[in-house]
Amino acid sequence: MSAARRSTAAPGRSTATSGRSTATKRQSTATGGSSTRGRSPLGVDLRRRLRVVPGKRVDLAKIDPSESFGHAKDEADELLEAGRLRLESLQERLWASKGGSLLVVLQGIDTAGKDGTIRHVMTAFNPQGCSVTGFGVPTPDELAHDYLWRTHRSTPAKGTIAIHNRSHYEDVLVVRVHDLVPRKVWRQRYDQINAFERHLADNGTTIVKIFLWISRDEQAQRLQARIDTPEKRWKFKRADLAERKRWDDYVAAYEEALTRCSTDVAPWYVIPSNRKWFRNVAVAEILADTMDGMKLTYPPAEEGIESIIVE
Ligand code: AMP
Ligand code: MG
Fold this sequence. Notes:
This protein has helices at 11-23, 27-33, 46-50, 76-97, 114-120, 140-143, 149-153, 174-177, 183-187, 189-202, 216-228, 238-245, 247-261, 276-292, and strands spanning 101-108, 130-134, 161-165, 205-213, 268-272. Helix 4 (76-97) runs parallel beside helix 14. By secondary structure, it is α/β, with parallel strands linked by helices.
């Protein structure tokens, strides 16, 4: 953990500094590098570019998973650091003000990089005030309840951030692909999910939903790397190959979820994720811009304390 990451400097100042040194290297960075609030250090408004416009049909074949908006890997470390500094400071204001809460939904096909994103981006957050919940195959207790029960139990309290590594969307993804419930049942869920998310939003939770989009070839390479690297082998399951055979079914299920459930209060973002460095920078930026939109301020201090001298 670098000293900079733990800096308590104002977000504007610290990010601007790292942004500016990047900007000297590339002209495109100069546009956004000198500001933090709502301006991209990449010089592209990624939040606008990657957001699924509510009501617009998503065709994943038209989204290049290797897209990086003209930027290069050698800038990535600096940009990511700038993004993390913004997040760190924004989280501090969220915690101090208790001005709402943030729910981050992370989805992606196997090997898309959900765990890596948490490791590289969410480490910006102070563990006090941030939870990560992984959603796997439901337990008997979870199955005995409605499918949103386990999600609702892990939503963020005021002042905190909850990261969902997989989510209630599995109930229209894996459940749909494998016919785990009748079609009639999962078809109703898109509207139910929208109503649920609306309810959370109306009660003070800001929602941001991230879909990490990789290509089929990239998945092959990443699965192979898991097999070939002894330290990664534990991650590989033979069942991953069976899932890979259902690639097209998953893509269709994702397209419908992205299309039907991207709303003004709970937008989906499709992140081109073949390049891990771009994925990290983009997620950091979208989260920080989302948190900027929460208009978080520090609560007022007790009156007249400025002149107090502690003896
Ligand atoms: P991993 O992310 O590798 O830990 O795997 C978690 C597994 O749980 C994935 O294969 C998901 O498809 C599966 N899973 C998550 N949610 C559900 C669900 N609601 N029903 C069935 N399987 C699920
Ligand atoms: Mg897995």
